[in-house]
Fold each of these.
Amino acid sequence: MTRWLGVVEGFYGPPLTHEDRLDLLAWVSRWGYTCYGYAPKDEPLHRQRWREPYGDDDRARFADLLDRGRDLGVEVALVLSPGLDWRSGDEEALIAKLSGFRDLGAKVLGIAWDDVPPGGADLGAAHGEAVAAAVDAVGDGVRWITCPTDYATAVPTPYLDAYARAVPAGVEIMWTGPSILSPTVDAAGARAMGEVLRRPPLFAENFPVNDGAMSDVLHLGPYPDRPADLPDATSGVFCNLMPRSRASWLGLALAARYWTDPSTDREAAWQEVLAEIPGLAPLARACRSWACDPSVDPELGEWAEAALATDGKDTRLRDYLVTGCRNELDPRLAAELEPWLDQWDAESQAMQFALALLVERPGRPAEMAFVTSELWRRARTMRAQVFGVRWAYYPVTEWADGRFHARPESLVMGENLTDRVCRAVLTGG
């Protein structure tokens, strides 16, 4: 069985530039990735207008991407998403466009039916039969990946049963776990889904992606806590990018560390990979939150408590803040991170004033308190989130009654470090 280690450009939002994709290929090749999936949701000819052919410029870019990937040992999978308006008889258009990808030299092709109106066994059969028709018509020498409409479920559905029966053996079927974004997933669940799919699932990891209602949170923390036996219950993984390619490099490297060695220590791997990206560590420490853990970096929290307990005599938090978050950052990475760098600066300034006010205890000079409160207010009005998640809504779901239902843990609210420090200083708490 071929082990997949892939990354997919499958987010909502502006697609990556061609140059970003080329740089991304070079980065993931360093970490052992074998496939890059082209599937940007908001690229019109991939999804909304999928029947229309690509023009000469697009075809040239695809050919360049395929060649560069092959030189680096990374196959580029070209994917279509026809499910928004699929009709009986569309197989001919699907086959024509996929055959065009094959003629460009693509060795991996994909058909994605995700995030479209759900249905039962009839829809599953129709989608699976379309895949089968494409596989048969395009011919040999191509590997296939697919994503069904019911891709996030812990239980079998009539759609999935019909889909898996129709999709030919050897075609990969993606599964994101029991939820669209799965805070937890285990090998037993993956094996059970493999029984439904009649093949091991290809795990689609929605990390480090941050589109939709979680788009204000930047995922720069350790890889999600996954059990060591999960890889053996799957045929591999595809990780979904953030809409910022260089900002995704850290998370993708961490995913590769886990999927090539599931016994890897998450925290140690995070520290080691951070050292490979100059200047990112200060912001990454402030942006390590994810769905399971909205809280601040534990060490920063410890420093804050020590500063509060000693009336500012413990200076570790202040020293960290004074150092800043932009030193040594590659300008292209800094451009992607700008909203969060600005937020870091704003919150850092508020905390520094609060810590300076702390030193004045038992007094609380009014002018310093007013400045601290204003800086804190400004930081709270900005959208990007650092030093802990104030508010985010993650797609943590369960499948029931023919549709996705949001679980209560979708809403993530944690205490932000700036809030904690400024509140404690201004109130004496």
Amino acid sequence: MTAPTRSATPRRIRYAILMCPPAGLVLLWLDRNLSLPKKILRSLFTVFYTPIYAGLVLGILYQFFGLQEEWRGGSLPHFTWSKTLPDYDRLEASRRDPTNLPPFTSQAKASVSPYWTEFRGPRRDGHYTEKSILTNWPPIGPRLLWRQPCGGGYASFAIANGLAYTIEQRRKQEAVAAYDAASGREIWVHRYDAWFQDAQGGDGPRATPTYHEGRLYSVGGLGDLRCFDAADGKLLWKKSLIVDNESKLLRYGLAGSPLIADDKLIVLAGGPGRYTVAAYHRVTGEPVWKTLHEQQGYSSPMLVTLTGERQILVLTGSRAVGLKLEDGALLWDYAFLVRDGNTIAQPVLLSTNRFLVSGGYGAGCACVEIQRTATGFAARTVWRNQNLKNKFTSSVLQDGFIYGLDEDLLACVDAATGKRKWKDGRYGYGQLLLASGHLVILCGNGDLTLVKATPDQHRELARVPGIRGKTWNHPAIADGRLFIRNAAEMACFDIGAK
């Protein structure tokens, strides 16, 4: 009688488990010659071995094939062969030789009125009302006016008098730049040594510049506050917010866009520190008042009127506060804590005495009502839930309904009750604006999307390529032109109604 030979099948299975655990596991359970206990034991080994195998493969891909990880807003990193980083050589070459761009003319300068002069528009609410926009986009998308490389960072644009202003990271310098809105030609640039670095979120400045009556105000990632002549870029005055207020830099840099309120320039100075909210005279740069001592968030101050009182609305790292415009005195506060002080989304005014706060990291959202009392003001919760978690984005209000990204899904919430009407459509950790009853969404991957703002159902009308790569920057609209950018390129599209 011939002695039985050992089957080659288990050897193939062992090799498969070592080289590709999922395939090995399938072969293991398809093999009819193995007993159930052996299948279970080898399956357990495969489960414990898989993370080791994955680590080895990733290590090889990182070391020899250029794989990289890029944080795009979720709980896990996104693996890519090409991160969204500025190409400085290409950027510098384009600025040296802009022969492909038409000249900046007085006619082009007059075509754009001072409308979208600050972060998220004239009221910082993400509403574009200057003129109607095109709501039936062609299959290829709105007409591209210009596209070019830019420096790093997460700032948006302020647009006035034919110029589009932003702040970028260019190598080891921050660069405040003015571009011809019609052609994209760089008109002036002011550079200074500053380089905020963050391995997770990304390098560069975060705060959108603010234009007001011929002056431009910018805040860099490290807290450099500068005032310029908006026409030619001449530096008028500067401050270090960290030094001047004896404050501390936030983990992800200073992100609050400067706010003009009468003759005051309101800024957030990081923290905690001696002072973390400050007002300077917008013309001279002299301090007017300084207040609060706690860590600030990453949103921007807003000038609002609540319960008939004109005031500054600020989200700190742990609460919403109303500050008296004249001297910075605290009018009221409302506890709203986002993990690690990551308050990023802008508050949304819902009525004459109510506003929305929202945050990611499990914070959810709340409708806050400000009431007059015998001694001043008080804040109370109208409703609070998890139906809208604005992580990086900010929501908009339309006809009593709130539209915003719940993490990376678009949601519609009833402003009166907090009940969700619908949640649908993945847009990444992008940004959105409201125009002509539609949501213009700049997706987290740079795509442009048009969605009808209706509580009845999610209605996506168009999705077209915009710019390439991770995009957390807010879009801006002026004179029917849509301005978008990320850390590598910028573009302008004509979305005005004909």
Amino acid sequence: MNGVDGSPQPMRIAIVGAGPSGAALALLLARQQADVALFDDGRHPELIVGESMVPAVVPILRRLGLEDETASFSRVKPGVSFIWSPIDPGSRVVVTFRRFAPSVFPYAYNIPRPRFDDLLLKTAIACGVRHVPIRAQLQPAVSSQPAAELVLSSEALAAVPAPRGWTPDLIVDATGRARHAARVLSIPARVGPRKDVAHFAHFEDFRWDDAPGQVLIARGHAGGWSWCIPLQERLSIGIVLNQDDAARLGRGPDERLDRAIETDPWLSSIAGAGRRVTSVATYSNYQLISERGRGPGWAMVGDAFGFIDPMLSPGVFLALRSAELLADALGPWLGRRAVPSRSELDGALASYSEQQTSMLTAWFELVAYLYDGRLGALMESGRKWKGNKPGFVKLALENYISRHVGLLASGASTTSRYSRGILRFMGRHALYGVDPKMYAIR
């Protein structure tokens, strides 16, 4: 498409939703000279799930030019400790990211999500993104619009601060778990087997017995699991339970979280004397992948496409990585200020969608190893097999297997067929009599 003077015009892209995926995509596209309108409904909750990152986020933060500022208000995360039995100190397995360097970044970050999200949005606007502070409505295209499947309402288009007649060449759904495009077009999703609910809040005056920034994940003594995520001045504590177990704890989120801390010896030792300084946030429906994440003239990014259980903290990475993948798919046209043909755009979106689906599916599979106990059983069987005085061969083999598990869980290579194959093989043939049920999360 050319302007009235014959000069090439940039691709016009409307992004609905200004969370991490939407704002990061807007930023990446604007830096490549796209004409981007970012619709922001202005919702900024006090607490947002996804406060802990995996190491694979760091290269994306550097690409965005935001690592230093993110680090200024975040806590460095050196690793994760898994506690299979809260009453058995010997059940703690400590994982540090530097063990897997240089294949894996030796650190990640624990972030206050509202501040991080705000940083992404402000940076995108500073790069020239057209900020539209309204709740945009998506609608099915009518028969007079054969090249499209999804359109913006006339009210949304009229609110774009641009010359009259601004219409997008591509619409991106970044509405998170609201999944506006999927609802408008009745697109089904593949939903995971768990129907959990999570309650979490921030605490001060807590007791800490691990390295600063080390995230703690523990099986609950009465089912489910809990997290402790150290931020700069606060500790995020969350519980994840099935609906029935949650109901038995109390009627509402506050009562349930307070009761969980009171009755769980491990959580009580950390936060029993602490002070809750926020309201209690609630999330549910933790595993979902859209059956279709793109169509003629539109695509989904971030949680709108799919979201995975927070057990291994992949949420922010998946959001930012989806933005990166879509920006790269559109890169050939943005670089020469051109609008792709319909077939070219369909091909680019198909490639992006395939990559995003593969990534979500791989994380889906990895999280299942924790819930059904196979990962915990593998750790225990490896400890028994290695013994107190392992030789060179045993140490080398353990390091080799651990490195590939680290590549999967860090996000560095979650879709690797080879690494996933190793984990599958070990999960079938290397348990050495250890029962995964002993480590499963109910």
Amino acid sequence: MTAVTDTLPLYRAEYQRFCQHAFGPDWLLKRHQEAFTAFEELGFPQRDDEEWRFTPTASLVQTPFHLPSDSIALTARDIQPWLLVQEASAVLVFLNGRFQPQLSTINELDGAIVLDLRTALQTQPELLQRHLSQYAPAAQHTFVALNTAFFDDAAVVYLPHESRLERPLYLLFISAGTEEATLSAPRVLVVAEEASEAALIECYAGPSGKLYFTNSVTEIVAAPGSILDHYRVNLEGQASFHFSYTHATIHREAHFTSHSLTLGGRWVRNEVYAELQGEKGYCLLNGLYLGTEQQIIDNHTTIDHAAPSCESHEFYKGILDGHSHGVFNGKIYVRPHAQKTDAKQTNQGLLLSRNAQINSMPQLKIYADDVKCTHGATVGQLSKEALFYLRTRGIEKAEAEAILIRAFAMDIINRMSLESLKEALDTLLLERLSKGRVVEVRK
């Protein structure tokens, strides 16, 4: 990477400020320090970096972001629009990356443990030392390093052996935004022990018109035989920057599904790295993103088949309007010893404007011979034949276009298991899809 030095002195100053209030055992402070050293050495990615050649970073890199103050306060009424499900085992609310106990609720957890970082350090120190910041590659990735250097709180989810949650866990991360550009570093750690089962929703939100940067990292460990249903919903404000990195380690016969929905943000990049480490593991990645105006939405996914007889499925769809720009880069690795791999990847893009664009880059790297691997990518416009069919039934053109666009999007939503979340996301889609267009919704 080529380092951009304009804002690096600012981040050094912010890190010194962070260190004055940093807490925790020596091993945690050391991981902060090592991560910031890695961030300085890596610098910010540039357009000549292959992984970033379709994703402009200048506006993000050149903006002087600062750590937020503690003076901001939210009420239960403020967060209500971002609570997409009414029944949850627990709702943990974080404001600018920091836990808000007065806005959070914990109901029946059926043996599961859901904590903030400070409480977890007191009650689960060995769990944290073993797993926290041990999977996401802070030494090799600028934004993972930046998060690891600056996170001072986290959502910690521990599912003991054979524990099963009947209702989902809901993690709400709000970036409040101030008069100056702010940086927050949300962090999530999920450890699912053998034969455990749960659904987890991460929702990221913030006000429109405020300039802020949400830089989040999620680490997930799915032990043998565990089942984890993961959802990630982006409702960020339309002036915001958002980066997310999700690392999932999937062991023998574990079942991991992840669904990504991106509706907000001025500049968004989602990265998912799923590593199938145990025989007969299963991974499903679904994604839907809607862009309008000048939005940039980049989805980078990697499924690493590192064990034999594993199965993975991936299906991403994008709908772009205005001058928006979408990127999809999906990689599938099949290691030499990962025989009998079954991997399928599909990416579809729908362009509603001549000025919108999508860069689609499916990649297969296969080093085993007894495998079944396929990929497909399409980018196009609304079907003229389907429009004609609806028009002959007396449906106005704008309404017919809206019907087709919603059907295209709902194909992803309907793959989700949580009915209450599906209904809420359908409502959000109706807000964003109006008369055959993608519209900006301000809240």
